[in-house]
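Field: COMPLEX_INPUT
Field: COMPONENT_COUNT = three
Field: RESIDUE_TOTAL = 1207
Field: MODE = joint
Values follow.
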Amino acid sequence: MPWSTWIGYSPIDATLVLIGVWLLLGVAGLIAPRNTRFVAHVIFPLGALVCLAMLVNAVIGIAAPVEARVMLLGLPDLPFHARQDALASVFLALLGGGSFGISLFAAGYFRDGPGAAPGLLGFQYHVFLASMAAVLLADDAYAFMVAWEAMALASYFLVVTQHKVPAIRRAGFLYLLIAHLGALGILLSFGVLQGGSWQFTFEAMRAASHPAPWASAAFFLALLGFGAKAGLLPLHVWLPEAHPAAPSPVSALLSGVMLKMAVYGTLRVALDLISEPLWWWGLVTLALGLATALFGVVFAAVQTDMKRLLAYSSIENLGIAFSGVGLTLMFRGFGLDALAAIALLATLYHCLNHACYKSLLFLATGSVLHATGERNLGKLGGLIRYMPWVAGLALVGTLAIAGLPPLNGFVGEWLLLQVFLFTASVPQPFIDMLVPLGAALLALITALSAYVMVKFYGVIFLGRPREPALAAARDAGWLERLGLGWFALACVLLGVLPVFVLRLLELVSVQLLDATLGDRLESWWLLSPISAERASYGPIVFLLGLAGVVVVTTLVVRHYYHAGVRRGPAWDCGFGRLDSRMQDTAEGFGQPIRRIFAPFFVITRTVPAPLDTAPVYAVQIDDPFWGWLFRPIGRTVQGIANLVARLQRGRISTYLLYSFLTLLGLLVLVL
Amino acid sequence: MIVAATNQLFELVLALLAAPLLLGWVNKCRAWLQNRSAPSIWLPYRNFHKLFHKDALLADNASLLFRTAPYIVFSSMVVAAAIIPSVGTALPSAFVADAIALVGLFATARVFIALAAMDIGTAFGTLGARREMMIGFLAEPALLMVIFTASLISSSTSLVAISDAFVSRELAIYPSLAFAAVAFLLVLLAENARIPVDNPATHLELTMIHEAMLLEYSARHLALMEWAAALKLFNYAAIGIALFVPWGIARGDVGYVELLTGAPILAVKLMIFGTGIALIETLSAKLRIFRAPEFLATAFLFAVLGMLVHLLLGS
Amino acid sequence: MLSATLTFQLVNLSAAVLLLLAFAMLAQRRTVALVDLFTAQGVALSISTLVVALNTGQDHMYYSAALTFALKVCALPWILRRLIRRLDVQWEAESRLNTTATMIIGLLVVIFAFGLAEPISALATTITRGTLGIALAIVLLSFLMMITRRKAISQVIGFLAMENGLFFAASSATYGMPMLIEFGIALDVLVAVFVLGVFFFQIREQFDSLDLQHLESLREK
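Field: COMPLEX_OUTPUT
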């Protein structure tokens, strides 16, 4: 852009400046840490403005040429390198757009209460945002790891905001544990990727040659590390604990933005640092992604806590994103670059979609929590009457996440299904028959997520209030509505104007895969990424057609048949005396899933005896991975620790003996 | 171009007007097979006329969602009818939505009916919503595999292009399409609330799925919902005809004469289809609700077998 | 003489029907229905052999088709039905896994068989070489049926269905086996059914039931 060179503007410099402003805002919040009004009405809105600037800058950066900078910070012989290319810019745009809505909401959300002081919360929040942006810009292993760990630490402190509650502390500990495990995997992966040159910049890693076994080792270490952050099986156990424990804007930030950093990392390692991925990596990633998605959605269907339900739904969506990554790698490994490009676009689109609708839903649960004080689905219901704004905007989010046209969830799913259709032409005997079944699994997962979202929305907002106290619920404030509305608008726009977004995303596939969709993104209103005869989808015409028919039907019916509307008690087949306990509960809605997918769960039932005067029926559903994987590992570690503890006798003479023996051994070795 | 627009309008009006007739025909065949005296074939029309003129009685806690859901559901079915080729394949609206978007339209209708059923908060509504969503998530993979098989053979996911490709093939036996057709039939029975998955004429709590969600609707809202259900059956029948017995559908840019001759052929096919549905309903018993997953797993199996046989045998 | 394309289509159709019947046997619950499905398989097999015979005009294929019809559609089902009647078998043929899991495993087995057969069928010289994969799939599915069943009669029918698959592979991919081998196999199958029938009577006398779980008590303690 000519004016940018004139005033010396380049996207990467602007990003670095914005990161600095976030850090400054965070520190500024520490001036008056207990002053909620200052933090909520000054710091967070200013932070939101910075987020908006980040979004605009990142969108400009997608089309801008790739630039790199070397910073003055860092180690003496390895200063921080920063680089902004199209892939980083896409995720920066996701970060900016997502955090804008969340910051607006948070400005209206945070109130006085137990837990960390608001100023401290603001500091942690903005450090979190800054560290995520730093992860996206990092161009060497050291900067990446510093930013990654800063991200993990800042989010840990945000998760344990209400640190007086023991369950929340435990959730935070589990989160930190698995985050560190993942960081270890990423570090090892970088260690393998430097390929003998002992240069840890990404430039050196791109130039290094990776023979096949080392490349596979690097990829799978990276998959382990980034999968731990994304919540892939089996390292997903922290997600359902940490996301509900955090305050709602933080949950939205974790689910909507932070989990995508893992997708970014995997794409960076597999497509950029390792230039030629092998096709079977893609197959493993695809299988892992689909398994994770099915697991997540099945567990989401049986939850009774609204935030845990959304957390499991995040596991599902990240599974779908990783299966898109797997398809990309598979096609790239077979040399079918054009198909790999479409798969990459589908993955990136799904990441954008998830950021929009998951943030919207988590923020809506935040409003519900503030208005009612309840997280348990068994104590909610009928809130559409008392909180119409939140209910309306949450409906947009629900329809989007269920994958219904013409909203954004459907576009991502449509693209992914189109890509799956091409897997039947892959030149490998078993793969061309097995992978199309993945399309059926994806359809099952999407339909199950529609089931889960109908449960979520129906139990919270529809029906009758299950507790009389719910009548006191008040709708969200104007700042909160702004935040929710931003995401709802994004859902609609991403749904009806996909071609514009795809034109931007295509630049990523040009840089990473050297493949473009060319003139297939010509028309702005018709999406036909493969060819017009093959498949096409025109969301604007679709929406206008649907809306038009609705309007015409309403007008015709009102014109010709103007009978009145009367109100009365519900018919209910004439049973009369209807109360709120007679409608379906969250547990009831999960019962078909419990029966059909029984092998997935570990179910503990408490059934009352026949002659019990106060019968209690309780069902507890646990994650089987605790029993299969984590408890055995925990027991083994405990056992080893007990063995080692035998060395601690408690007597000083024994310890002196150890030192003496070590000294003898060293003397023998050295002399 | 004008022919295409006429075709589009003609198919839309035909679907709207003929859907209740199809429903009446199915009920008539069922009555004959069950040795009862049959209701008139025009009974659904008279029903709608009566319902539209009544006062609507809404529950006192019915929200805006409840009142607008019938319009949205009806419109989804109308838009679906606009993109399914029933008389001719020259549909200008077909490039706006392909077969996957069609499945998405059906999903939209299902979600809105389920949400509206949960709105009043009765036991029947929420139970029906839960069961309907369950049938939905089991049937969608099977339906998608049927579309997959069809699109592998014709290398397109646009329903019009698939139908075009199949019409142009000479008359031959294609086992993969036979499997896909059986799978589609099973999915049709499940999605349209027919025996053996659901009984469209029952109001017993243990056996209702679709009917349970409509209990709180009355007057014009009920009429729109019932019309939408009839349209759904018509749409599914039209999809099946377009995919598996497409001979007689006018291809591409043809004149008005071909379009007019297409309508009686469609009528004959729909009559046979209606008789077949009535026969299946009379001969089968309704399944227990948790046998429905097995039923739909069978449908999925048939569809996948069709795809595999096509990949192996090339036919 | 049938045209090549018509032969191709009819053999493919029989192949698809045989595969379908093999799956139906895998999922079927009732024992008498299993025998019906086996009879239907025999009919499809005879038709397929007849079509190949009409196409190639070889005499021994005609004899083969006649033999298949006599044995698999008339004799064996009659023997099996008599056996079921005299053993007084219950309706339900219990299976170890639930139906959906069995069908999904069957699907994976079919994919495995198809994938395996692709390079092999490229070597064959007949027009219907694509059916080799289907024949292999039928053999494996029948084997799977034998594994997942508990009643002894179902396992016999699985064994017979396996032989059906092998015969189909022979008749479609290589245009039949030498008559001697075919007679030999037919005799083996007949003898096996007789011997197994005798065994079943012994088992029923010993345990008063044909559930093979009782045989598990015969082991070293």
